[in-house]
């Protein structure tokens, strides 16, 4: 939607309802709206700036997807054994949560040696999430570069489901849920439903990247949420212009992605997770800087969900 006034008007009249985290008691501080942003959007920020910016703009959580442009989070000094307690103290002091710890592990891989590396990486991220008391670890279904098929075949879906089920068994005792992102070859509701049903684990769920199901699989948000809502644990939101795979990311409300309907669809199923902004600055360095884009998301979606303070009003 190019007219952001219209975008805000739709929300202010339709979604001024209690926040996902519930109303605060009169003697307590008002809870932050359940907004989050992914660190994928701010690859040049250090740890302190990430936390300070999140606090300044009234975010409730951050999603960890690399720091300083480096994606192997468990190997970074910030999360090393001798610093992890200080890092957790930093998060608590900022009154933030870690919404998700996002790995690059891909479950489609067939070669046993390569597959074990993917699984081992996912387990490392699960261990980190458990230490940080983060509820989710993201993994991908993935797709081999040589695979030109429009959708994964049954064998691939079975491998992905098996990997998710195995990781779920590892994650469950650590109070972590493994979530597959709607991405790559795994954006259609039919494909994701097959995989999630086959995984058949209470410790496996879905990260709904609402942009990809709309732009790649041409699904309306109400349909996707109706099909997959029972598995949705975490959500990525972003806007773009163009069509199909030929898209350019733009500030929230300035594109043609139906973000207002995506959020409304989530609210219709009483979604309790975070509305996370994934600004892909790492992969698209030409898009707006995070100081602009992340703050803008907090204003626009914050106002849409009825928190005037988060919108800077």
Can you tag this structure with a few keywords?
alpha/beta, 313 residues, TIM Barrel, single chain, disordered C terminus, two-stranded antiparallel sheet
General description of the model:
With about 325 residues, the chain is α/β, with parallel strands linked by helices. It has a single domain, classed as Alpha-Beta Barrel (TIM Barrel), CATH 3.20.20.150. Helices cover about 40% and strands about 15% of the residues. The chain has 10 helices and 10 strands. Helix 4 (about 110-130) links the parallel strand 3 and strand 4. The radius of gyration is 19 Å and the shape is globular.
Sheet with most strands = 8 strands, parallel, barrel
- Extract low-pLDDT stretches: 10-28, 307-313
Report, as a whole number of angstroms, the end-to-end distance. Answer: 22 Å
Number of domains: 1
Q: CATH superfamily name?
A: Divalent-metal-dependent TIM barrel enzymes
What share of the residues lie within helices? Answer: 25-40%
Roughly what fraction of the amino acids lie in strands? 15-25%
What is the count of DSSP helices, taking H or I runs of 4+ residues? Answer: 10
Per DSSP E runs of 2 or more residues, the count of β-strands stands at 10
- Taking all Cα atoms into account, the compactness measure Rg is 19 Å
Question: What is the fold-level CATH name, i.e. the topology?
Answer: TIM Barrel
Give the mean pLDDT: 90
- The string of secondary-structure elements, in order, is HEHEHEHEHEHEHHEEEHEH
| Main sheet: strand order | 1-2-3-4-5-6-7-10
Describe the global form.
Answer: globular
Name of the top-level CATH class: Alpha Beta
Which structural class fits the helix and strand makeup?
Answer: alpha/beta
**Name given to the CATH architecture:** Alpha-Beta Barrel
